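FIELD: query
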Amino acid sequence: MANLDRIVESFRLQSGACRLFGSPFTADLLQEATGALERGGVLADLIGEWPGHPVKDALPLRVTGALHAAVLTKRDATLVAAYPRQGNTADGAKAWPAAEAFIAREPAWMNAWLASPPQTNEVRRSAALFAGMMVLADTCKLPFDLLELGASAGLNQNLDAFDYRTGVWARGDAGDLVIETEWSGPAPPIAEPLIASRAACDQSPLDVAREEDRLRLTAYVWPDQSERLARLHSAIQIALRRRPVIDQRDAAEWIEEKMARRRQGYLTVVYHSIFLQYPPREIRARIDTAIRAAGALATEEAPLAWLRFEPEGVLGDATGGLRTFLDVITWPGGRRRILAEADPHGRGVHWFGHDWGKLCRPGPPISAMPASRSS
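FIELD: result
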């Protein structure tokens, strides 16, 4: 088990992240799992020879997602009783013995879940993304062709179907899904994007019409975060009506093809959220090259925008920093604007407003960027 030390450290780091992002149950569960790994036993037997990189592969989240899936499908009554449910917040540390017993009894079922990477569609990020699109709508009066990379189940393809409530600005009249976000700084320009077309890709897209895919999306939401679960359920209902189409494609090949087919009279908007850190460096470089090459050919009649909700380490910060920013590069011209700093789950957004000009700097090509800390 030469990789065990790295696995233990990945669980320790993920426990801290879960605590920071508001899931004490999952944080405590992972803390107990960390101790169990150090002692050896069923969890070490299950994942101690993990062949990949435990952080990049999100191994701790694969384990907690599998356990949550077992609860959601009522696969083990003792585990179900130990997990959060309506009116019961539960205790992650006390739930660990039930989790450990389940792993010991059903290692094959666990392994089947662990084989697939986590799939999440955090729709609360859409508050920042939609604000960025309002900036584009305010400055470019053309209809949008939307292209999303790493779309998973495509829930954020429907960001114009959501209502938004912040302490600074609002949109909509309490429809099926209301996104509430803590907002600091000024309001973005309130301008409604006219979306003419939508397309998206993912290496392993999920289909919300499939029960097993809905289960996978739900299992990777931390079980003590009832508001996130409710938002996900509402977003799934919208997607079931709208049925977003997600191409199962490599992101570099897909965006190269799309950049070659941009339309006159439309603003092409490439966007993604917490995606760019995951592809291999060479794929990121190809994506970057394809978009910038298309940008060099952009005109006022066929402009291009690249809207990114990503950790600063993959947006060109030399330190490989971990803060999350919303930025946009627009062509013709290749101007970059840093619009906001945001919580990775979209819980809070600090909008820079008219100060963004002070923060602008040329966006370096990805080939010149440091490797992501998650890789």
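FIELD: remark
The first helix runs from residue 4 to 20.
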